[in-house]
Amino acid sequence: MRYCINCCIHLLPNDLHRQCFRCRGPDHNNQKCPVCRGENKIPLYTDRKQMKWLAVLEVRTDHCESWNGFFCLRKGKLCSLMFGLIIMTLVMVSYMLTGAKHGLLLIPSPFHYGAFASNPSLMDNESLSDMKDYYQPSKMNISYVKDYPSIKLIIDTITSKIEFITRQRPDLEELRKQEPHMFSVIPNKFLPNSKNPCWYEEYRGNTTTDPYATNSYALYSKRFRIIFDYLRKVFWNHLYHYKDKHYRLRCLPHFYIIGQPKCGTTDLYDRLRLHPDVRFSAIKEPHWWTRKRFGIIRLRDGFHDRYPVEDYLDLFDLAAHQIQSVLQSEAVKERGKRSNIIIGEASASTMWDNNAWIFFYDNSTEGEPPFLIQDFIHAFQPNAKLIIMLRDPVERLYSDYLYFASANKSAEDFHEKVAESLQLFEGCVLDFSLRACVYNNTLNNAMPVRLQVGLYVVYLLDWLTVFNKDQILVLRLEDHASNMRYTMHMVFQFLDLGPLSEKQEALITKSPASNTRRPEDRSLGPMLPTTKAILRDFYRPFNTKLAQVLFDDAFLWKRT
What we know:
This protein has 560 residues and is an alpha/beta fold. It has 24 helices and twelve strands. The longest helix is centred in the first third of the chain and has 28 residues, at 75-102.
């Protein structure tokens, strides 16, 4: 068999090869043409077997290509190219049609963005937990959405859907069914001679038993192991012996600093712990009520083993040892006095973070959580005291972004994340209640910035459904920064703490502020004026309601 080296066409024995324009021109001579004669070519034979495609491969020594080669495309190659183009076109058309149906195209509507756009296919009684599979976080870049009037329309839609509806409290028996072990450990009565809620619990271990061997805080965090190493050493010295049995003093906090993040809770904690009658948990923010008891360390990392209530109580053993020393003193035993030491706990997630409910509690038809953190705290401690530190939600959000964002931080990036979060929030409130959206884990994880944390009044109203108003002290960071002595006196009075000497008071009030903005974050400057105007419009109706609930117009944050 013979093959033309230029066009690879199989030549019959008598074929003059007239169809190849490369080999045959107007004045072509087969005898004189070096190509047809076989010069300047090196044949390369593979084997003796017959091949279906090419029997011989020839390597050219002359690499110069002529434009005439374009006319030598085989019909098969041309058909393959056309077929490939048709298939590609069909795939693109299919993607566009499918994307338009599910709202996944990168050509957004002017007003409904992201994963929570209104969807008529959802039934009115569909639960919010079902949205986990249907909705996915939007990843589009919407840096072009910097037009204030356009975003103002989104905010107007959200505002029109705001409705503050009183929540119904669950029954105590319903709470017992959800957390039977917790109710079996914590009693319903505490020691009368201690201001702090404490009780004695029988310890069944022996001298060789490590009381903290299974504590999850010690197992999962290296920085807590030093604390537990010390507790192991002093544990047996603080057991109470009675009728051949060993008892340990267990305590819960007398008060909780429940929120909000980036509102000065760390500074309040650092100052309050300097008071001689105040003790705190061994760890500043245990996050047990909101996260650890569900097995959440970081929600994006999935679930771990749930931290039992005993692990949480272990965190107060240091304070319990001091309270026990007072209880066993002669002054308390003989004169009937009581211990005035109180314990505090300062997890800034306690007020607002109920994201785990959807994974552990039965869903409700309205998409709202049937049980909240405060329901369980109140069930065990109806007399607990709660401290809330707030700040202008606009500034709080920017501070939150600067603190938690890992890379590419800028005022422009913050603006884009705010715009996308607003669009996601709008999509949710179009289909569900305000409370359902605020406590929606899927939405909260999808939003690039935590808009929901600044909706203070939504959370406060839910806490007021179980606790009396005189059990909650609400402070402003702006007041704390301008007149620290005044705010600390309010806290001391609220907790019914004893008087301080001038030296003790000076130590508490004149210490430098804690957890201030990092120097590298300060260099980024303030947020864009447009972003601030957008956020002011978004938070305004919530601030107005908060000021009404607290009877204080300072919570309108008009001067900040």
